[in-house]
Fold:
Amino acid sequence: MTDKKEHYKNVISELKNASDKDHHFKDGRILGSMCTEPIEIARKAHTLFLEANLGNPGLYPGTVGLEKELIAMVSKLLHGKNVSGLTVSGGTESNITALWIAKKVSGKSEVIYPKSAHFSFMKAADILGLKAKEVDLTENLQIDISEVENKLSSNTAAVVGIAGTTEFGVIDPIEELAELSGETFLHVDAAFGGFVIPFLKDLGYPMPSFDFEVANVDSITIDPHKMGLATIPSGLLLLRDAKNMEKIAVSSPYLTSPRQASLSGTRCSAGVASAYAAMKFLGMDGYKKIVGECMDTTKYIVGRIKEMGLEIAMEPIMNLVAIKMKSPEDVKKELEKLGWKPSLTRAPKCLRIVVMPHVTREIVDEFLPDLDKVCRELGEI
Ligand code: 0PR
Structure:
């Protein structure tokens, strides 16, 4: 017995050592992540649903109820009426599933997406055997609508627009895309922006329509495990036409449900409970306050950066700052030596800071003198 206890303690201590080697959001040094420390109630909810499996729903009617309510809450946020939804592991699974549905619905073989799209679309095209037609960006890093028009054809299975690009937080002109795409399946990737844009709009920031408010938007990816402040893994796919979900269903005779319409079989329910808890607890006002604070910090960073003599790639649309540099790789390397973890963008080449809730004003005040020092040493300013 004591041996067993000792062994248990040793394994736990190995886990603690491993975790100590990791970087943690609460330390405030992670500046390039679209995830953040989940709020306390979301962590608690996660631990309560560790064994539930939405892949076999008949055993977990309670969890199914939470999933339904979560989908209803997110649908409301995104102006959906009677939309159907699927909880998934995150943006990648959601985007793959959306294109899978589009392929099934259309029977066609090409997908059009902007060069700013997350790499999950490359994976989706590869897995689904869809020909990817990548569209160049305009000067303001949005999808070039005229190129979309040229690329649309009778073979197009889906058109994709991004509401909050991974690198710059840019919102594609979804209304224009919707007009152009017409009957063609239109998917919007709001994995990051979905929990940001509605609240910024509420706060008075000028925000374009990007969700089910726009007729012709067929599906939306939105991730509670990003700005939804839930635990990983927590993603969502919403579909305007509930019938379309059935297109990917297969028979699952030995489960409690006769058919299964999802890429994953066994599905994590802890993330679903966590997202439900975060949304119920924070409410729209809670998110609005947090998003507002992130945006205030973003503006503060931009002001200080400009004072330093650095240039930003664009005025931030959401809580993301991209700082133009000759050699952001070198700046990143030096900042890493000082314990900071920023990230990079490709074109234009920038140092990228995602201003998540753990990137507080105090953290920024610690970071900026280091950035200033490194940039001076490397001749960036
Ligand atoms: N769509 C968009 C717009 C995204 O930004 C991302 C991920 C995805 C889809 C895919 O989502 P999942 O990673 O949930 O499948 N964006 C981040 C990125 O690749 C993900 C991330 C999060 C990366 C935290 C690093 C990190 O520390 O940059």
